[in-house]
Amino acid sequence: MKRAFLAVLLASVALPCGAQRVHEVYQQHCATCHGANLDGGLGGSLISGAWKHGGTDADLARIISDGLPDLGMRAFREMLPLDQIRALVVFIREREQQERARSAASPAVRAESPTRTALHRYRAEQFADGLDIPWSIAFLPDGSFLVTERSGALRPIAPDGTVGSPIRGTPAVLHHGQGGMLEVALHPQFSENGWVYLAFAEGWREGGQPRAMTAVVRGRIRGGAWEDEQEIWRADRRFYTRAGVHFGTRIAFDAKGFLYFVIGERGGWHEAQDLSRPNGKIFRLHDDGRVPDDNPFVGRADALPGIWSYGHRNPQGLVFDTRTGDLWSTEHGPRGGDEFNRILRGANYGWPVVSHGIHYDGRPFTALTEMDGMESPVHHWTPSIAACGLAFYDGEAFPRWRGDFFAGALAQQEVRRLRIDGRRMIEDEVILKGAGRVRDVRAGPDGLLYIVLNEPHRILRLRPADE
Ligand code: HEC
Questions:
Q1: Catalytic: 246?
Q2: DSSP string for 330-375
């Protein structure tokens, strides 16, 4: 499964011939002094977490580039191209993180005892289980829930956590690679109109090979059945591809009722820069799927008019800060360079021209981390946390968390609390770790945080336990 996913990725890009993998570069040029395991020798340890000469990514790149001639480390500027130096930074960061994970105690979930974080203590209770790759959760006004399962089902969950049988007649999905039934969201006026939105991977098979793409529909649920279905967004058939990766997706509504949703670049890398294709874009539509007249690329012959922002790899977190009205997104980077972005009208987020990451196999693909005309992330994570699911918290239950974001992480099995000051991230705290791969994080109308987990497939709920 993992291998197939990698094969698709590798097949879809032209790799630079001869670029060396980063662990080979390290062993050839650095290991004699810093140790084969980065734990030090003549040069210091690169994984202790203590940096004598500046510990930001930019500092590390500068030191490798310029060397520390007085201390006996040469400048590698002439010997290694800039992208290899960037790759070394990613490599060092990954090893540093692995070392930290081995030694550090992070907030792990224990069943009944409260977990202490910087600002609140909480108790994690198991809310629902027995699910099949749950992906997204929505809160109904009557206190019940809807949950998607990637394998294709939309299920109700009763207020007490009892999981019901699948809603009948929901759209057929293509459960292929990372695709399947993905996002569920309610219309902001759901109480009046009953609209439920679904975003999912769909398509067909040709000679056994899938042709898949993300689609968005809405419908109503009556008596356990999906009815009144309307298409909100579908790609032209020519954009359905074999790739099983990077479908996105999340849905968010702004205060005016416009609908935003994500499509990842579907393994198409540079297609994220092509405005005539849906890959790697965030879209903005009216709630019924019509394109708003004031969208940034309306009227351009070479652009899909629904596009709001572009140059994305695979965002899987999308939420409004309801205080400022700003739209925020978390985005999966490749190996390194997961991003936290403020989404601006018409902006280009740079993938794959600029990135803080490298190929999964350790080869660099760009030396550039920023460029004029491209929006830099407000924050990036190297090594990758595999950011998935994003909530904005403005509830009553955890007053000191009000105004903060909560981001899930699949690979690192974490929930992180993020605090933004203006345009800068000033706090990034792991509040939960090791309970499973975090697929979605949502703030409930009850002020509790709901954490949708995979492996094991279940939903946790965080409840205040302050003294
Ligand atoms: C000939 C030995 C030598 C080689 C080869 C070498 N370094 Fe160093 N490196 C050093 C020394 C000595 C220091 C300074 C240690 C100190 O300040 O105590 C250093 C410092 C560093 C630092 C700063 C550490 C800190 O605490 O801030 C980084 C990062 C680093 N090296 C990375 C590399 C990388 C990456 C390579 C390979 C491209 C490399 N070095 C190759 C000797 C070496």
A1: yes
A2: EEE-SBS-EEEEEE-TT-B--TTTS-S-B-TTS----S-S--TTSP
